[in-house]
Amino acid sequence: MAASPLLEVRNLTVEFATRRGKVQAVKSIDISVGKGETVAIVGESGSGKSVTSYAVVRILDRAGRVAEGSIGFSGIDLVGASEAQMRDLRGREISMIFQNPRAALNPIRKVGKQIEDVLLQHVQATRATAREKAIAALEKVRIARPQERYDAYPFELSGGMCQRIVIALALACQPQLLIADEPTTGLDVTTQKAVMDLIVELTRERGMSTILITHDLGLAAAYCDKVVVMEKGRVVETAAAAEIFRNPQHPYTRRLMKATPRVGMQLRDLLPDAPPEAMTASRTSVPNLDQGGAPLLIVENLVKEYPRPAAGSLLAKLTGKAEPEKPAFRAVDGIGFSVRRGETLGLVGESGCGKSTTSMMVNRLLDPTAGRIVFDGQDIGSIPARQFALTPLRRRIQMVFQDPTDSLNPRFTAERAILDPVLRMGSLRGRDALRARCEELAGLVGLPVELIDRFPHQLSGGQKARVGIARAIALNPDLVILDEPTAALDVSVQAVVLNLLEELRQRLRMSYIFVSHDLNVVRLLCDRVIVMRSGRIVEEGTAEAVLGAPQADYTRELLTAIPHPPL
Amino acid sequence: MLGLIIARLKTTIPSILGVIIVTFLLTRVLPGDTAAYFAGPAATPQAIAEIRSKLGLDQPLPVQFVSYVTALVKGDLGQSLTTGQPVTADLAQRLPASAELTLFGLLISMAIALPLGVLAAVRQGSWIDHLCRIVATAGVSLPVFFTGLLLVYVFYFILGWAPAPLGRLDAFASEPPRVTGFLLIDSLVARDPETFRAALSQIALPALTLAIFSLAPITRMTRASMLAVLGADFVRTARASGLSTRAVIGTYAFRNAMLPVVTTLGMVFSFLLGANVLVEKVFAWPGVGSYAVEALIASDYAPIQGFVLTMAILYVALNLAIDILYGVIDPRVRLEA
Amino acid sequence: MNDMSKVEPPPLRFEAPPSTSLLAHARHIVSENPVTGLAFGLFALILFAAIFGPLVVPYDPLASNTSSALKPPSAAHWFGTDQLGRDIFSRVIAATRLDFTIAVASVALVFLLGGLAGVAAGFFGGWVDTIIGRVADTIMAFPLFVLAMGIVAALGNSVTNIVIATAIINFPLYARVARAEANVRREAGFVQAARLSGNSEWRLLLTQIVPNIMPIMAVQMSLTMGYAILNAAGLSFIGLGVRPPTPEWGIMVAEGASFIVSGEWWIAFFPGLALMTAVFCFNLLGDGVRDLVDPQRRN
Asked: Over the stretch A7-24, which tens digit does the pLDDT of each residue have?
C-alpha cells in the first residue's frame, strides 16, 4: 500500500432526482482500492453500495448524478472525464459483472459474438483473430468445449455457465479493475463457490484489483482483503477482513455481523441485545419434543411426476407419426420421512431438488403422483388438493410463504388477512371477539396493534412477514411448513423472524418443516435435517450429525461451499 | 428455419378452419330468407324455392357446409348481383389496388414511426419524446375517414397540390401493362415516368391517411419496448464494457426492441385492413374495400362474404409471415421449433 | 417479544395513512397531471350532452329548412347548416346520446361476457380454457373491422347489431386480459394462502381473484370505449347501422364528405371533430383511470 492506490474515491456524493425532490443515495464516502487488492463493499438493500460502483464507471441512470467529490483511477479523474474517454476505459481498464447473469447477456446474440464485440471495440483483436481470441477467453473461464459454446445463445446455458461468460466478457481485455456487483446472488451455493473461486483465481493471476459488492458479510470476509461496510449511503466502517469479524467497531457492523448465521452460534446470538441468560435457553434442549408415540406426519414413497411437453402436434398423433412418449419428469422421486410432534425438520437442497414440491404436496396444495402422506393417523394424500380446503384437517396444517409481499392479498388489510382462516374454519364469531383474537395474534408475532388496519403496501417487509406468520398460527395448527420464510428479507430482519418462529413453536407446541437452501440457518432452527438432490433424499439425520459429520459426498460439498469467514 | 415455417404453418390450420366456419355461419344467418335475398326483390315464391334448392338451402346444415367448402376449394365465392361477375374474379381484379395502398401506407408509417420511437426513447424527456407522445395519443383518436377528408380539403381544395380524390389514375392517364397490378411498380417496369407521377400523386393522400392512422401504435410500441430494452441488464453490460453508442443502440438494443414491435404489426395489419375500407370510400379507390361497400349498399351479399373471407385469409397469411419474421430475429423461437 | 421488534428499522418510505380516500387520491392524480383533469372535464361535458343534449339544443336536429341550406358557421348557426338547412350544432349535440349509448352498451356487454369467460379460462384451465381460447383465436383471425362489417351485414342493419358486432370484436381483448390476470394469480402466494385458510375454489375466485382483476378491467374498459365509438362511427360511415336522418357523428361525416371537394368543409368537420374529441377524451381517461386504480401509486 506504499504506492498510490489504483482507485481513489474521495468525498463522493451521488444524488437522484425523484418526484419528492433530490435524494442522496451516497453521502460523502471515501474508498480506496490498491493495486492487486480485493475490496468488499457490504451493506443491506438501499445502502448505496451498487450506486457507488455505477458512479465509478459512470453508468448511473438518467436521474442520478455525482453531486460532489472525486474519483481517481490511476491518475485519471473519472468524474471530469469525457464520455469518449470513459467509453475507452470501460471494459478495457475497468470491467463490471452483475447479478442475474442470464439477463446480463444479450438474449438474441451468440455469446461468442458478444465477447468479440468487446474485443473489437477496444482493438484487442482484428476481425480475423476475434473468433480465436473469444474462444480463448471462454477457455480461460473453464468452459468445456468452447468452440461449441461460442455459438450458443444465453438461454441455452445454465445460470452458472452464463456467469462464466459474463466473467469472460469482463476479463477479455485484461482490465486493471474488476467490479463484481452481487455476482453470485440467485446462484446455488455450490455454483456460488465455483464462480467466486474462479473470479479470485483469475484476478490474482493477473494482478488485478477487485471490488466485490455483496449483502453477504460471510462471502465478503471469506474472499476479500478489505471490507467496507455501508449503511444508508454512508461508509460506517472500513477494516481488514480478518479484523471485521473479530473486532467490529461500528454498532451497525456489530449488529450486521451478529445477525449473520455462522457455525457455532445459537439462534439467540443473532439478536443484537440478547440477554446473557437467553444464551443458556438454547435451541438444542428441545423442551416439547415428544419422544414417544406415533409421529405426527409419515410420508412414504412420495412421487411427483410432470409430463414432458408433448412431442409432435395433434396432427402427428392422428397420423401415427408421434414420437415415442418421453418418460415423465420426476420432481420428487420416491421419498419417505416422518415428523414427530414438536419437532423441526429441515428440508435442504439446491434449486430444483424437489424440496418445494415436497412441501406443497405435504400441505395438500398439490396432488402427489404416488405414495402416502399420513397425518396423525389419517391418509391425507388421497384427498384431492381441491377438496382438502373443505376438510377439518385443513386447519391443522398451515404454511408460511417465501415472499411476504406476494402472499398477501393487496386488497385485504392485515387484520382481514390474519383473520381469513378464523372466518373460514374457526368457530369464533362477532366483530369484537374477532378483533380481540386478531390483536392477540398480532401481539404474539410482535406486530404493533395499530398496524393491523393497514394494507400490505403500507407495511415493511418484516411486518408483512409477521402478518403471514400470524395468519399461519391463527388456528393453532399442529404442523407449519416454512418455505424459505426469510429468503426475501435482510439479515437483520431474518434474525428477528427466525427467533420469533422458534419462540412460537415452543409456546404453541407446533411441529415445523423448514424448507431452506441456507445450511447455516437450518443448523440453528432444526432438530433433524433431510438433504435432497434431484428428487431423492441424499442424507438424513440429526442436525448435528448431518451438518457436523456429513456422510454423503454431496452434503460435504454443500457444506464446504458455504463461505467461511476467518474467525 | 424450415422446421419453424412448418411448425407455424400447422398453427394456421385451426385459424383457417375457424375462419371458414364463421363465414359459413354468417352466410346462413342472413336476415330473413337467404334464398329470397339471392333471388332479388321481384322474385316469385316459385323462383325463391327454386333458388333454395339450387343453393342447397333445403339440405341439413352439415351437408350445406360440405358443399360450401367444396365450392371454396374450387375458388367459387358466388356471383355478384351488381357486376354480374363471379366474386372471385372481381376480388382478384381489385385486390392489387388495395394491397398497393395498404403496403405503401404501412411503408410511410414505418419510415416515420421507427426512428421517431427510437429517438424518443433514447432522448427521453426531450422535445422529440413529447412529439412522440402527442403523435401516439392524437393518432389513436383520429377517425381515419375524418383524417382523409381533412387532407382532401387542405391539399386538394385549398392548396390544390393533390388531384381530385377519384381513384388510382386521373382520366387522362392510361394504365401501364399489368405485371404486378401495383401501378407504381408497373409504370416503372414500363419505363413510363408520366404514369408513375400520376399514380404517385393519386396514392399520396390515401396512403398518408393510412400512415397517420397506423403511426400511433407503431410509434408507441417502438418507444415503449426501446425504453424497456435500454433499461435491461444486458444493455448495462454492453455499456459497462465500453461498447460504442452505435453498437449499444443498434446491435444490442434495437434488435431486441424490434421483437414486440413485430408482434404489434399483427394488430396494425388488423386495423389497416379495416381502415382500408373507409379510406377507399373517401378516395373512391377502386379496391376490394369500396367493392364491399358498394355491395353493402346494394344488399348484395355474396361479394360481402367473399370480401370478409378473403380479408381473413389474407390476414392469417400476414400473421404467418410476421411469425416467421419473429423467428428470424429471435433464436429462442427458432431453436425451440 | 418486545425487544425483538426494536431491531427492525421503521419503514423507510413515507406511508400514507390507510384512510386515503379514492377522492383525495383522484385530486392528487389530477393535480399532478392536468391532462387527466382535462379528460375528466371533457367526460363530464360528453355525459351532460348525452343526457340533456336534445333538451338544450337551439334547433330541432331533424327540421330541414331549404332556404338556409349550406350556410357556413355564423352567430345563428354556430357550426353552419347542411344541404337540407339543418343546424349542425344541434345535430352534433343530439348525436352524443346515440354514439355514447352504443359505446357504453357494447363495452358493458363485452366486459360481462369477455371478462367472465377470461376469468373462468384463466382460473379453471383445462377444457374451459381451450374452448374460450379457440373462440378468441378465431375472432382474432379476422381483421376486426372487417368482421364487424360481416356481422352487421349478416345480422341485419340495425343499431343493436352494431352494439353486438362491436362487443364481439372486442371479446378476445377482454378475454385475454382477464385470462392472463386470473392465470397469474391462480398460483400467487396470497391465493395459495387463502386455500390454506379453507376457502373453496369458488370463494377464492370471488374474493381473491376477481377484486384484484377489476382495476385492470376498468382500465381496459375506458381504453376500449374510444375504440368502440370509432368502430361504430366507422360502420355508420359506410352506411351500416344508423340510417339517415338520425343524427350520428359517423353518418354526418359521410353526408358531408361529398361537399368537402366543393369547399363546404363544416358539414363533415364538426361531427368529425366531436367524434375525435370524444375518442381523445376516453383514451386520456384510460390513462387517468390506470393511475387512479394502481395501488402502487397510491402513496
From this structure: 999 999 999 887 677 888
| Residue B133 Cα to chain centre, angstroms | 25
Could you say which residues from 86 to 115 on chain A have a Cβ atom under 8 Å away from some Cβ of chain C? none
- C103 interfacial to chain B (CB closer than 8 Å): no
- Counting residues of chain A whose pLDDT is more than 90, the rounded percentage is 53
pLDDT in tens, A306-358: 886 654 444 444 444 444 556 778 899 999 999 999 999 999 998 888 998 99
Q: What's the mean per-residue pLDDT of chain A?
A: 87
Cβ-nearest to C230 among B143, B150, B297: B143
- Sort out which chain A residues have CB atoms less than 8 A from B329's CB and list them: 108
* Cβ pair A79, A14 in contact under 8 A: no
Which residue, among A50, A83, A117, would best test binding to B if mutated, counting the most B CBs under 10 Å from its CB? A117
- Predicted ipTM > 0.85: yes
Write the pLDDT tens digit of every residue in B97-142: 999 999 999 999 999 999 999 999 988 878 888 888 888 878 888 8
Largest Cα–Cα distance of chain C, in whole Å? Answer: 91
* Three-state secondary structure call for residue C88: helix
**C252 inside 8 A of chain B by CB:** no
Q: State which H helix or E strand residue B261 sits in.
A: helix B255-282
Q: Which of B30, B141, B149 sits opposite C253 (nearest CB)?
A: B149
d(CA A291, CA A542): 14
CA distances, A64 to each of A67, A211, B235 (Å)? 9, 21, 17
Residue percentage of chain C with pLDDT more than 70: 87
Show the domain range for A123: 101-174
C28 within a domain of the structure (yes/no): yes
Domain boundary among A121, A142, A174: A174
The domain that holds A538 is classified in CATH as 3.40.50.300
Q: Per the structure block, which three cell numbers stand in for C112?
A: 360481462
Whether residue C271 contacts residue C252, with contact meaning beta carbons closer than 8 Å, is answered with: yes
Angle between the N-to-C axes of helices C34-56 and C266-293, in degrees from 0 to 180, rounded to the nearest 10: 130
Number of domains forming the structure of chain A: 2
Is A502's Cβ below 8 Å from some Cβ in C?
Answer: no
What is the extent of the structural domain holding C276? 23-297
What are the chain A neighbours of C298 within 8 Å (beta carbons)?
Answer: 457
For the entire predicted model, the pTM comes to 0.82
Which CATH number is C104's domain given?
A: 1.10.3720.10
Chain B contacts of A105, Cβ < 8 Å?
234, 237
CA distance B280 to C113: 33
Position C7 in a domain: no
Last residue of a domain, one of A150, A174, A198: A174
Report CA dihedral (A143, A144, A145, A151) to the nearest 10 degrees. Answer: -40
Q: Best interface-test mutation with C: which of B130, B149, B318 has the largest number of C CBs within 10 A? A: B149
Domains in chain B with CATH codes: 36-76 (no CATH), 87-174+207-336 (1.10.3720.10)
Q: What percent of chain A has pLDDT over 70?
A: 92
Q: Which residues contact C101 (CB under 8 A, 6 or more apart)?
A: C50
Chains that touch C (3 or more CB pairs under 8 A): A, B
- Work out the angle at residue C6's Cα, subtended by the Cα atoms of residues C1 and C12, and round it to the nearest 5 degrees: 135
What is residue B337's predicted lDDT score, i.e. its pLDDT? Answer: 55
Residue A411 in grid coordinates: 386488497
A378 to chain C, any CB pair closer than 8 A? The answer is: no
